């Protein structure tokens, strides 16, 4: 065991230029990781024309990336704690680069699905590794909060600009170019990581993962995410419900196995901390509300406000900017005010955004909805940054990877849960409104088809004469907006409760620095 007073991982030591350069290196793969989640939104018609996937294959192309990330986060977070976080990050970066090339030059739907699946597994190594390394590099609590805020802002910006970047690339290149963006970034990471990033592995780290725990974690998360996503498109039909129930059963088996193991895949003792539990709950519910509403906002911009895809993406850029700004100002606010008040205050701002979308109608200026969703993400920025800092900073250094994976898993599950629950709720409202007040002068078969979704209604309107087409579009847009209004009110109610929880649970507490005795017990080696 060694303790170097100049080592960045010594508790309380302030980070220097090397650590901030390392943060910039870690921010780039985080940006690409998030960008890959949304960059295919505009590319799907192009790859569909080239590869001719079936409807089911196209869904898997779009969804398998998120499935694999969600499923492997816990395993990869714990693996990094055991074999070394920089080592795992570099392995993941190499795999991500290779998988990006495979996906870019895929010649069949199956090849693209496999490439996207590999991207997801590799991506699951990046998020917890980068976040855990930040916790090692920035031992001063104030600097760590700033670093995590920058990391969060990069992640949210990547998701926000993905559709725009995809649209710009598709103006001049083929659909595979959207994947090749990751290759130079991963090459840069592999070249610079040994110089600017420290390695970290506890001296007594176990070398072996429990295979049964890995299988049970996948069996618990993957069916749950699949079932939630299917509910968002098909409603509460049997296959989706069975998948969620199976996921819950395997989740219980996973928890019971962790309780019996001396070296569990996930240390359940982390949940004994009240603030840790509250932070994960707030991340989960807030992400669910925001993710569900974002689904409505993107469709509103394209289908109700009738904006073409690229312009629709430009309208949503303020959301990414607002989220980044909200995350970046959080540490400065937390130094002047109690963190619980900062998080609660941000969530109150988000409630105002939810209410803007709740009162918008089909004829509202586009700025009302775009401004509302931007307020939602701006207000959620302090919550995301400070809650993530609390989750990672409140555990011993040797468990930072596992804690980071729990934070990211809460985010992934939250997005899936929000899209499923709020999406299903909005769809139910849409169908109810279309059934109660069908548009006059429109053929019955068109009305019946349009009663499914607004996208179908828009497609049906294209084959009708001008008068009936306009009537069908107006009815569909009003029904869709009514569904978005309900989602906005539900989101406002949920986030109001979260604001109260944040103010009460976090109280005077600041994101905690890891316990010195835990850091001294670990071996931390700086890269040569």
Explain the overall architecture.
The protein has 528 residues and is mainly α. Helix content is 78%, strand content 1%. It has a two-stranded antiparallel ribbon. α1 (17-38) packs antiparallel against α8 (182-196). The longest helix has 41 residues, at 466-506. The chain is globular, with a radius of gyration of 23 Å. The chain starts with 16 loop residues before the first helix and ends with a strand.
Strand order of the largest sheet: 1-2
SSE-based structural type: mainly alpha
Report the average pLDDT across residues.
77
> Tally the helices: what do you get?
20
**Helix amount:** over 70%
Q: What is the distance, rounded to the nearest whole angstrom, between the alpha carbons of the first and last residues? A: 17 Å
Radius of gyration: 23 Å
- Total DSSP E strands: 2
How would a textbook summarize the main sheet? 2 strands, antiparallel
The geometry reads as globular
Order of helices and strands: HHHHHHHHEHHHHHHHHHHHHE
Strand content: under 5%
Low-confidence stretches: 1-12, 511-528
Top keywords for this entry?
about 525 residues, mainly alpha, two-stranded antiparallel ribbon, globular
């Amino acid at each position: 065991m060694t303790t170097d007073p100049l080592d960045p991982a010594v508790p309380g030591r302030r980070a220097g230029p090397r650590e901030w350069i390392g943060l910039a290196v870690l921010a780039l793969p985080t940006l690409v990781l998030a960008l890959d989640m949304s960059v295919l939104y505009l590319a799907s018609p192009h790859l569909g024309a080239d590869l001719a996937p079936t409807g089911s294959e196209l869904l898997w192309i779009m969804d398998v990336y998120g499935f694999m990330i969600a499923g492997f986060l816990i395993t990869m977070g714990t693996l990094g704690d055991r074999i070394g976080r920089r080592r795992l990050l570099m392995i993941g970066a190499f795999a991500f680069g290779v998988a990006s090339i495979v996906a870019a030059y895929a010649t069949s739907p199956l090849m693209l699905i496999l490439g996207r699946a590999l991207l997801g597994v590799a991506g699951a190594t990046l998020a917890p590794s980068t976040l855990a390394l930040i916790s090692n590099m920035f031992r001063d609590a104030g600097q760590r909060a700033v670093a995590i805020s920058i990391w969060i802002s990069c992640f949210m910006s990547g998701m926000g600009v993905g559709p725009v970047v995809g649209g710009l690339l598709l103006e001049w290149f083929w659909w595979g170019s959207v994947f090749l963006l990751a290759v130079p970034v991963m090459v840069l990471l592999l070249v610079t990581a040994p110089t600017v990033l420290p390695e970290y592995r506890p001296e007594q780290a176990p070398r072996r993962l429990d295979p049964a725990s890995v299988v049970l974690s996948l069996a618990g998360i993957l069916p749950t995410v699949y079932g939630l996503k299917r509910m968002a498109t098909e409603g509460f039909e049997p296959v989706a419900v069975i998948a969620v129930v199976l996921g819950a059963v395997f989740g219980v088996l996973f928890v019971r196995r962790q309780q019996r193991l001396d070296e569990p895949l996930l240390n359940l003792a982390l949940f004994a901390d009240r603030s840790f539990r509250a932070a994960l709950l707030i991340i989960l519910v807030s992400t669910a509300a925001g993710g569900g509403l974002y689904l409505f906002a993107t469709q509103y911009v394209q289908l109700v406000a009738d904006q073409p895809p690229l312009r629709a993406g430009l309208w949503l850029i303020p959301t990414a900017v607002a989220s980044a700004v909200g995350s970046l100002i959080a540490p400065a606010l937390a130094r002047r005010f109690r963190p619980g008040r900062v998080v609660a205050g941000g969530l109150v701002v988000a409630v105002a955004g939810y209410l803007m979308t709740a009162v918008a109608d089909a004829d509202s200026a586009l700025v009302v909805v775009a401004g509302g969703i931007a307020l939602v993400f701006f207000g959620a920025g302090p919550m995301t940054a400070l809650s993530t800092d609390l989750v990672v900073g409140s555990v011993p250094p040797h468990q930072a990877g596992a804690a980071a994976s729990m934070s990211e898993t809460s985010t992934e599950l939250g997005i899936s849960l929000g899209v499923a629950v709020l999406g299903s709720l909005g769809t139910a409202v849409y169908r109810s409104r279309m059934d109660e007040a069908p548009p006059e002068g429109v053929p019955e078969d068109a009305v019946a088809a349009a009663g499914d979704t607004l996208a179908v209604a828009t497609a049906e309107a294209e084959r009708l004469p001008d008068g009936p087409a306009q009537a069908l579009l107006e009815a569909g847009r009003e029904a869709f907006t009514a569904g978005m209004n309900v989602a906005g009110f539900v989101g406002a109610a949920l986030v109001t409760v979260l604001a109260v929880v944040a103010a009460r649970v976090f109280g005077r507490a600041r994101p905690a620095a890891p316990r010195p005795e835990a850091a001294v017990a670990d071996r931390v080696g700086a890269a040569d």
